[in-house]
Automatic annotation (TrEMBL), chains A, B:
GO terms for molecular function: precorrin-3B C17-methyltransferase activity. Pathway: Cofactor biosynthesis; adenosylcobalamin biosynthesis. Residues 5-210 form the Tetrapyrrole methylase domain. Keywords: Cobalamin biosynthesis, Methyltransferase, S-adenosyl-L-methionine, Transferase. It holds the Pfam family TP_methylase. This is Precorrin-3B C17-methyltransferase. Its EC number is 2.1.1.131. GO terms for biological process: cobalamin biosynthetic process; methylation. The keyword Cell division does not apply. Transmembrane segments: none annotated. NCBIfam families: cobJ_cbiH. It comes from Marinibacterium profundimaris.
């Protein structure tokens, strides 16, 4: 029995952004577990079983992976981006804490990946080049009032911001409200970056001032970055560079 | 003249955490520019010139890289971690904005990497599994009062936190004060992770409650993670798992 469980980040989409560490784990795995579109990114091969499941069953998926690991299998749970940022790692540890005592002694490793906000920031320039925060805008797992509170405090702290899961079909109104809260707290000027499907064939990047940002510019494939009060835009032919200087003058 | 400039993240140290995209850029480069220990991580080969420079000359280094790019060279500026997180990308764009107009039209790309906080979080479990912020604790480029304000607001927002550059020989007192501010705002209980030299041969990871955290536990090789009010510790043989659940109950 030498099973292990690796919770691995596949990055934003491009195979050139998958770390060799993750590729090595996939090459040694007996079983891969994850949400359907992420498992679809893993090459099939003999001796590898792919277990794709729908979204919103994260804890079931985690328990399944832990059971297989306990049986001696070499299991990779795949997430897009980084598994520790609004992805499967927390779900697996929730399952460990609530599960049988012996799961605590399993060989569980988290393999980091390029998370969406960093891939998006790289495409735009360096908008997260100074202090910043990352907020999941989905209110599936927390009250909406807490999201609004965090948005207001993030503006007060003058963080640049990255928003994951900004908008879905089942909750179209949240992001509308988030933009209203931001405009009320931060004014109209600061740049907003809508980065969709970064590093994939259908990648798109759009930079607009907050006043022109509309809810329809985001969907679940989009990560949204909002500059701080010091974020700069460098105009040029083609897409501008957006960056937040390292220095803040007193 | 087909010069280009890639600002590339080498990840925290282990070659298995360097993306294939970054390796490909290094394989095509004529010149590599960066801080001495990061340039030392690039393999020498014929046709590649290494330009290592001391710390605190980021803008000089950026200008040098931009000049070489304008001359038609294929230049990689290397950072550890991710270049967009408290690293060289913002410095390059500062130099572009302040430099000659023609620099704006250079072929400049940012190649993301595994940033220290995500490598550290992966080693510990999933402490950044819910909303979080990243703060550079150095007051070289911003007033200390702003750092304290951000710490207080981050506690009020109940973010998990990642601190870069927590402590250096030239400013030993800042981190002492940061721990005081955190204890006053957040109480004594929440877990603090001191992650030093993650993924390197001398890696160390230490998890202590805030009340037992001391300034000497950090140096410039350390990234410090602080849990939110909901962060959990799973005790086990060996190092505990630390994770922040996805769910917050109203």
């Amino acid at each position: 029995m030498s099973g292990w469980l690796a919770i691995a980040g596949l990055g934003p989409g491009d195979a050139a952004l998958v770390t060799p560490e993750v590729s090595a784990a996939l090459a040694e795995a007996t079983d891969v577990v994850g949400y359907i579109p992420y498992v679809a990114r893993v090459a099939e091969r003999e001796g590898l079983r792919l277990h794709a499941s729908d979204n919103r069953v994260e804890v079931d998926r985690a328990q399944h992976a832990l059971r297989m690991c306990a049986e001696g299998k070499r299991v990779v749970v795949v997430s897009s981006g980084d598994p520790g940022v609004f992805a499967m790692a927390a779900a697996v540890f929730e399952a460990v804490e609530d599960g049988p005592e012996e799961w605590r002694d399993l060989d569980i490793r988290v393999l980091p990946g390029i998370t969406a906000m960093l891939a998006a920031a790289a495409k735009a320039g360096a908008p997260l080049g100074h202090d910043f925060c990352a907020i999941n805008l989905s209110d599936n797992l927390k009250p909406w009032a807490l999201i609004e509170k965090r948005l207001r405090l993030a503006v007060e702290a003058d963080f640049a911001m990255a928003f994951y899961n900004p908008r879905s079909k089942s909750r179209p109104e949240g992001f509308t409200r988030a933009l209203e809260v931001l405009r009320a707290a931060a004014g109209d000027a600061r740049p907003v970056i809508f980065a969709r499907a970064v590093s994939r064939a259908d990648e798109s990047l759009r930079v607009v001032p907050l006043t022109y940002a509309t809810p329809e510019m985001a969907d679940m494939q989009t990560v949204v970055l909002v500059g701080s009060s010091t974020t700069r835009i460098i105009d040029r032919d083609g897409a501008p560079f957006v960056y937040t200087p390292r220095k803040v003058v007193a």
